[in-house]
Amino acid sequence: MLRNGLEPWHLLVLAIVVIVLFGSKKLPDSARALGKSMRILKSEAKAMKDEGDGATPPVEPTAVRTAADTSQPRAAAEPPAAAG
């Protein structure tokens, strides 16, 4: 029944319908957006695959030190002096 369901003339009719519905001005923008989406999907799938393999250990965040932190070591916390 659906032995040769997608023949070349089917694709031609489909292309004509898409052009009529969306207009020729919006097709390049739509194709560009579809390409971006496919690249994002591909990179996310690759990241998930790499994460699942365990090939690379997870990166732990490092502490960010400012110039004030490195200039002098911190003194032990002292209780505030009583006013007297």
From TrEMBL:
<protein>
    <recommendedName>
        <fullName>Sec-independent protein translocase protein TatA</fullName>
    </recommendedName>
</protein>
<comment type="function">
    <text>Part of the twin-arginine translocation (Tat) system that transports large folded proteins containing a characteristic twin-arginine motif in their signal peptide across membranes. TatA could form the protein-conducting channel of the Tat system.</text>
</comment>
<dbReference type="InterPro" id="IPR003369">
    <property type="entry name" value="TatA/B/E"/>
</dbReference>
<keyword id="KW-1003">Cell membrane</keyword>
<dbReference type="InterPro" id="IPR006312">
    <property type="entry name" value="TatA/E"/>
</dbReference>
<keyword id="KW-0811">Translocation</keyword>
<comment type="similarity">
    <text>Belongs to the TatA/E family.</text>
</comment>
<keyword id="KW-0813">Transport</keyword>
<comment type="subunit">
    <text>The Tat system comprises two distinct complexes: a TatABC complex, containing multiple copies of TatA, TatB and TatC subunits, and a separate TatA complex, containing only TatA subunits. Substrates initially bind to the TatABC complex, which probably triggers association of the separate TatA complex to form the active translocon.</text>
</comment>
<feature type="compositionally biased region" description="Low complexity">
    <location>
        <begin position="73"/>
        <end position="84"/>
    </location>
</feature>
<feature type="region of interest" description="Disordered">
    <location>
        <begin position="47"/>
        <end position="84"/>
    </location>
</feature>
<feature type="transmembrane region" description="Helical">
    <location>
        <begin position="6"/>
        <end position="24"/>
    </location>
</feature>
<keyword id="KW-0653">Protein transport</keyword>
<dbReference type="Pfam" id="PF02416">
    <property type="entry name" value="TatA_B_E"/>
</dbReference>
<keyword id="KW-0812">Transmembrane</keyword>
<keyword id="KW-1133">Transmembrane helix</keyword>
<keyword id="KW-0472">Membrane</keyword>
